Amino acid sequence: xxxxxxxxxxxxxxxxxxxxxxxxxxxQFETTMDPAAMASASGVQLTEEMRARMPKxxxxxxxxxxxxxxxxxxxxxxxxxxxxxxxxxMGRMMMRFGGAGGAREYYYSFADQKLVExxxxxxxxxxxxxxxxxxxxxxPNFNMGGNNRQGGNAAQANTGAVQFLPGPPTMEVVxxxxxxxxxxxxxNKVIIKSIRKAKVLDMDKDIVDETAVWYxxxxxxxxxxxxxLWTEGTVLAIENKGNSTIAKSxxxxxxxxxxxxxxxxxxxxxxxxxxxxxxxxMKRFSGGGRQGGAPVRVNIN
Length: 301
Description:
Blueprint: H1 2-21, E1 25-33, H2 35-41, H3 48-53, E2 58-66, E3 70-78, E4 90-92, E5 105-109, E6 114-121, E7 124-130, E8 162-164, E9 170-182, E10 185-200, E11 203-216, E12 234-240, E13 243-252, E14 267-268, H4 271-286, E15 298-300
Parallel strand pairs: 7-14, 9-15
Antiparallel strand pairs: 1-2, 1-13, 2-3, 3-4, 3-5, 5-6, 6-7, 8-10, 9-10, 10-11, 11-12, 12-13
């Protein structure tokens, strides 16, 4: 009887350990961009010669590390394991290009639903309080890659027949009944529409861009590869014309607290201060005017 009890206790301990391990781990994401398709979706007219010179696909990797209380999301490269495990695999590279479109680091705190964006501007590392939401990326066009490219159509070009009018787009969320499994998790689909006013051949038109967002509630925390494309749960896939981010693998393992904690050396900056700084940079580099800051309407259907 004593041996049976000890065996039961041992199995129970193993089960608890396995359950605890599932509260931390890493999810690998892959972003694929088709530059020609993205340009066409933004109203840019491309010649056949221009298309021929563009790469068919540009891929980059990102990693979400999570614990029971925190998470971080940033670019990675093929190198030593980010937690020091060695043996190849994905390793994090602190790749803060700065500016509006540069790759950023995101740090999540689940208990208070806080999100901190960390990025570099002019050799200074900043930390900005943010949130998961549905919103356009109303940022100057300093795109250099990274996951801020998706959604919002902030920098769509005024070219030829299409002239976008000033002001941010209207964002609309359309819930669907579509489901699918990603990494074994049950995922639901929502469509996020970005609607911009434009003149097309001198006629007023609404230019609509649709992004499919697949999320699951099975992981028990809130996250999105793009904080401006989130409605609920953990987003495991974002699909747009010429631009997609999809979770490719998940590994349950121990995660160091420092890997999911924002760097303390980062200088705090507010969204308004960042906006002012970016507008000043735009004025210096291009002589352009100020970026519109009208309120954004979000409709939930």
